[in-house]
Amino acid sequence: MIEKYLNGLKIKKDELTALERSRLLSEGKEVDRIMCCLDTGETLAPMIHCTLKEYYHSSEKMCELEEYIYHNFHSDGAGVSCTLRGMAEAMGAKVKYSDYNIAQLEEPALSLEEAHNAKLVDVDKDGRLPIILEGVRLVKERLGDKVPVSATVTGPFTIAAMVLGTERLLIGTVRKPEKVKQLLDVIVENNNRYIDRLLDIGVGIGFADPVSSTSLISVEQYKTFSLPYFQKNVDYIRENGGGCGLHICGTSRKLWEFIKETGIGAFSLDNVEDVEEAKTILGNYMSIQGNVPPVEVMRFGTPHDVLRSARECIRKGYDSPKGYVLTSGCQMPVGTPKENMQALMDAARIFGRYPIEEGILSAED
């Protein structure tokens, strides 16, 4: 099937819009194919002839990119991220912006000793938060009748790393745990203020929390300094009638037993983890999303590589009890070829079309 695709296989067109597909799946009804979302954002700004620095500071460019992605690839999701450093910047951190690299922390907002002075933000005035929120509003206004629109919030522990600097934070969890907790309480409140605006706009909410990965911290650190504060944000969303998902970069397997009790609706896997194992442990609690390698396959691979990797992901995840969404294991890097993005979407149309043909999922081509 892959060879046929590369030689001009005619792909059957979608029968539903992304919004219709999402709605029917949530109702437990039949749809045409599995969901497939392109994990985009500032890294793909060059596709609309825009630098990353311009993208970060323009609501219109944020929306323009989402419109481009939807109209060219028909991804099953659209949205705008607060970015890993967006909330920290609003709290006083200095961020360095470059034309073709993601933003980097230039100077922390405060030291751990100053945690009692951590800033409660005004989401309508501080940092880039107003720009990002306007970008979310524009995407919802222009694409909300066609595709599910969401916004990404940064997990509290990751925000703390951007407010203090990651090394300072990790040292602080050992030497000054109460100061870390004091800072995290402020961050939870700041996130809730931002979440209020997202709920008002009417978009879905996802969390990105890479510093909570067991690639960086122990399970005990996660249970003490990350999970309780993330849970507060999740509970706030649910109390206000919303739902949310979570993505953790890097390793997360040791955290799944705790994550499954949080009440989130979706978990997105980094490509270092296994979809089938996630289905077994998390599948009865939430939908599983992932996890084609964003660098090795999406950026530097070929359409053939994308199709093979996506087929394997679908084979492992399509029958997950609470649903499966095909996507990359993390945000796609600058320079990801359009052909590979198209191949990922087409993989959902070839291998993920209902009823699923298990024979083509186990083929060797």
In short:
The chain has 365 residues and is an alpha/beta fold. The protein contains 16 helices and ten strands. It has helices at 2-6, 18-26, 52-56, 59-73, 86-90, 129-143, 156-164, 166-175, 177-201, 219-239, 256-259, 275-282, 294-299, 303-317, 338-350, 358-361; strands at residues 35-36, 78-81, 94-96, 104-107, 149-154, 204-208, 244-248, 266-269, 287-292, 324-328.
What is the string of SSEs from the N terminus onward? HHEHHEHEEHEHHHEHEHEHEHHEHH
Give the mean pLDDT.
Answer: 96
Distance between the termini: 7 Å
How many helices? 16
Rg from Cα = 20 Å
Instruction: Give helix % range.
Output: 40-55%
Strand coverage percent: 5-15%
The number of strands is 10
Judging from the principal axes of the Cα atoms, what is the shape? globular
Polypeptide structure, described:
With 365 residues, the chain is of the alpha/beta class. 46% of the residues lie in helices and 12% in strands. It contains 16 helices and 10 strands. An 8-stranded parallel β-sheet has the order 1-10-9-8-7-6-5-2. It has a two-stranded antiparallel sheet with strand order 3-4. Strand 3 and strand 4 form a beta hairpin. Helix 6 runs parallel beside helix 9 (177-201). The chain is globular and about 60 Å long. The mean pLDDT is 96.
